[in-house]
Amino acid sequence: MTAAPVVHVSAAVVTDESGRALVVRKRGATVFQQPGGKPDPGESAVEAVAREVREETGILADTASFVPLGRYTDAAANEPGHVVVADAFALRVADGTGSPAGEIAELRWIGPREVATTPLAPLSRNHLLPLAWA
């Protein structure tokens, strides 16, 4: 049996002053996930997450504002048969921050009560969103 192909990404657990977590839905996708994506060649995980957050949500944050949360693995939501390995970082922002940009079709701020009714990527549901309210 061959192992599933691995996709490496950087992901941001962005929370606001009201304790909500930011999730985004890419164009053509049916589930929401944390802002983030694949690092460019030569780019560190934290550089990638800062760039991706800016490109996807318009939120500008220095790399020093991101707090490392660890590395998490789950089934990839948008690449069937793949496994995603995410270097996760926390970022706190003001309420009302961000708007959909780039490849993002929709942006939502959710609380723990909305998790059950929001279509979420496995990595977000199982690992990253619980970190937002830990």
Chart the SSEs and their pairings.
Layout: E1 6-16, E2 21-26, E3 36-37, H1 45-57, E4 67-75, E5 83-93, E6 104-110, H2 122-132
Parallel strand pairs: 1-5
Antiparallel strand pairs: 1-3, 2-6, 4-5
Task: Describe this entry's structure for a reader.
Residues 4-133 form the Nudix hydrolase domain. It comes from Microbacterium insulae. This is NUDIX domain-containing protein. Belongs to the Nudix hydrolase family. Keywords: Hydrolase. This protein starts with 5 loop residues before the first strand and ends with a helix. The protein has helices spanning 45-57, 122-132; strands at residues 6-16, 21-26, 36-37, 67-75, 83-93, 104-110. The protein is globular, with a radius of gyration of 14 Å. Strand 4 (67-75) and strand 5 (83-93) form a beta hairpin. The protein has 134 residues and is an alpha+beta fold. The protein has one domain (6-132): Nucleoside Triphosphate Pyrophosphohydrolase, CATH 3.90.79. The chain has 2 helices and 6 strands. The strands form 2 sheets. The protein has a 4-stranded mixed sheet with strand order 3-1-5-4, with helices on both faces. Strands 2-6 form a two-stranded antiparallel ribbon. The longest helix has 13 residues, at 45-57.
Number of strands: 6
What do we call the CATH topology?
Nucleoside Triphosphate Pyrophosphohydrolase
Adjacency order of strands in the biggest sheet: 3-1-5-4
Top-tier CATH class: Alpha Beta
Whole-number total of structural domains:
1
Helix content: 10-25%
Shape: globular
Strand content: 25-35%
Report the sheet with the most strands, covering strand number, pairing sense and barrel closure. Answer: 4 strands, mixed
- As a whole number of angstroms, the C-alpha radius of gyration is 14 Å
Judging by the overall fold, what is the CATH architecture?
Alpha-Beta Complex
CATH superfamily: Nucleoside Triphosphate Pyrophosphohydrolase
What's the helix count? 2
